[in-house]
Amino acid sequence: MVTPWQIECLLARARSLRAEIQRIADKDHPYREPGIIYDALKEVIDSRVRAFDDALRLGRKSGDGGRLLARLFNETRDELEKVNLELVKAMRVDSARIPFEILRAMSAAAENLLGEKCRAVVRLDPQYNYSIEGCEERFKALKWEPAWRKTLAESGDNGEKQSAILLVGFPSADAGAILLHALAAHELGHAAGNRWRDEIESVRSELVAAAKGQYGSKLVEHIQASARSMMGLGLGVGKSDAYESAARSVVERLERIAEAWFEELVADLVAARLVGPAFLAAFDRLNLGAGQGSDEHPPSGLRSEIISTYIADEITEVATDPVWRIVYEGKHQSSGSKDLLWEIVAGVCREGATRIRPMLRDVPSRLSGEPGLGQIVSVMETHLENGTPPTVPLTPAGDSKDGQIFWLVMYAGWHFRLSLDRFDAFARRFGWQDDLERAETALGSLMLHGLQSFELRARWKTSGESIRRVD
Predict the structure, then answer these.
(1) How far is it, in rounded angstroms, from Cα 59 to Cα 50?
(2) The pLDDT of residue 70
(3) Residues 450/391, Cβ–Cβ less than 8 Å
(4) How far is CA 397 from CA 96, 235, 455, 460, in A?
(5) Residue 343 pLDDT > 90, yes or no?
(6) What is the pLDDT at residue 471?
(7) How far, in Å, CA of 378 to CA of 292, rounded?
């Protein structure tokens, strides 16, 4: 039974959490999207408190309702904890250390890739992690979609036309490391992969079924070993039941690993198509080579192998560029595994990468089929060497293709950073030869300036053409 004191404590928690959200919302923000997130979280609290109050009144009138009240008490308590966790994610979106200049360019890149209006919001993450999460998808997963929809409707925009809000989590310790934003290609690749969800699931299911047949005898031995371990626990499980339980557990784990690794594989290949080996360079910077893998993420050796094979076959000019050798060194040796299920899924992923290549050709990319890519990047690097924005030699097209500039700048920035002769000369020219971190920060500033400059020129071109059409 829920006591009056417990109810008072619960409602006090709801009020204090809502007040904290309002306090954060009242701070100045450079964009309006954080306010939508905060309003939606407040609506989640309000809706739960309303439901709890209704149950409380109903119980008082009927003299019953104790079970309903107890259930709603526990649900409301749990929901408040979830709201607090989501608030923590959205709290550091106004830090002065955030490179706000990158938001519009990243939003344009997301729109070009996903085919819908997008707005990026960057938050500083205390964890050393890079993530992009769609707010609407997150609210749906938490079963808060009504609160999100209501907030959008009250924000003054048509809910169907409101831009998708992407919450970009970026390591606080590396707030100024612009090169790390090459990882956005992988994170957005998860969303881009949804367009081929059915086809990818079909390919994965077919390959997993074939692998079960190919590894049939080894799988039987693996299941038998698991069954013997289960029987050795002394739980009184019979041989037949142990084998059946072990077989079910092994197959479920195999399919779970295949699903998780395949999802990462698709995002990796989208990233490879957008920024080439620059994705691996940024990934190494974030993870420091700690890519042993897990049931949720394939080992870095396998990822590097599949990405480099894809680039070699699909983006030849990039594959033959010697600058990227440093990124591939020592990666492929870790592709093997003593875990039979990992070995099976690794084979599935290698074959799957070949099977899904035709789908990836729908992803617009400046690296694939771009005439004279090497020359374009070289000219961009010359501007970087001289302390000028790398986008100066690029001409806005005035269409969706301009959204791809973000990825080209990330690619060129990493290419310049790993072109040791050019980057070292850049550092020496400005007196930073003993402070490469400062030289890299300057490189990031030039990249940001270039993205801003290109956006302004693109908007000017579009506005000028509109004026001419009116005239």
Answers:
(1) 14
(2) 86
(3) yes
(4) 33, 70, 11, 11
(5) yes
(6) 46
(7) 35
pLDDT at 2: 82
Asked whether the predicted pLDDT for residue 306 surpasses 50, the reply is yes
pLDDT (average), residues 41-63: 85
Residue 120 in domain: no
Task: Looking at the structure, tell me whether residues 206 and 298 fall in a common domain.
Answer: yes
CA separation for the pair 440, 430 (Å, rounded): 12
C-beta of residue 89 within 8 angstroms of C-beta of residue 123: yes
114, part of any domain: no
Q: Which of 310, 325, 360 is the last residue of a domain?
A: 360
Residues 220, 355, single domain; the answer is yes
Q: Are residues 313 and 378 in the same domain?
A: no
Task: Please report whether residue 210 resides in a domain.
Answer: yes
Q: What is the pLDDT of residue 40?
A: 96
Span 136-149, pLDDT tens digits:
999 999 999 999 99
The Cα angle at residue 396 between residues 102 and 187, in degrees rounded to 5: 40
pLDDT band, residue 313 (cuts 50/70/90): very high
Q: How many domains are contained in the chain? A: 3
Q: Indicate whether 159 pLDDT > 60.
A: no
Q: What is the mean pLDDT of the chain?
A: 88
Q: What is the dihedral of CA 212, 202, 298, 257, to 10 degrees?
A: -60
In a shared domain, residues 277 and 354:
yes
- Give the CA distances from residue 19 to residues 12, 48, 186, 358, in Å, rounded to whole numbers and listed in that order: 11, 15, 36, 51
- For the chain, what percent of residues have pLDDT higher than 90? 59
CA gap 111, 66 in Å, rounded:
50
Q: Which of 158-172, 337-351, 405-419 has the largest mean confidence?
A: 405-419
Asked if the structure places residue 41 within a domain, the reply is yes
Measured between alpha carbons, how far is residue 343 from residues 201, 227, 305, 333, 334 in Å? 20, 21, 14, 14, 12
Q: Is the domain of 33 the same as that of 78?
A: yes
Closest CA relative to residue 125, chosen from 165, 168, 82, 166: 168
Looking at 232-365, list the stretches that DSSP marks H as alpha helix, in order from N- to C-terminal side. 239-275, 278-287, 300-314, 316-319, 325-328, 340-355, 357-360
pLDDT band at 134 (very low <50, low <70, confident <90, very high): very high
Q: 331 and 228 share a domain?
A: yes
Enclosing domain of residue 389: 370-471
Domain identity same for 303 and 202: yes
pTM of the model: 0.89
**Are residues 101 and 110 in contact, defined by beta-carbon separation less than 8 angstroms?**
no
The edge-to-edge listing of strands for the beta sheet with 118-125 is: 118-125, 164-171, 131-134
Neighbouring-strand partners of residue 164: 118
Residues in CB range of 6: below 8 A, 6 or more apart: 73
In this structure, are 346 and 386 located in the same domain? Answer: no
Last residue of a domain, one of 333, 360, 387: 360
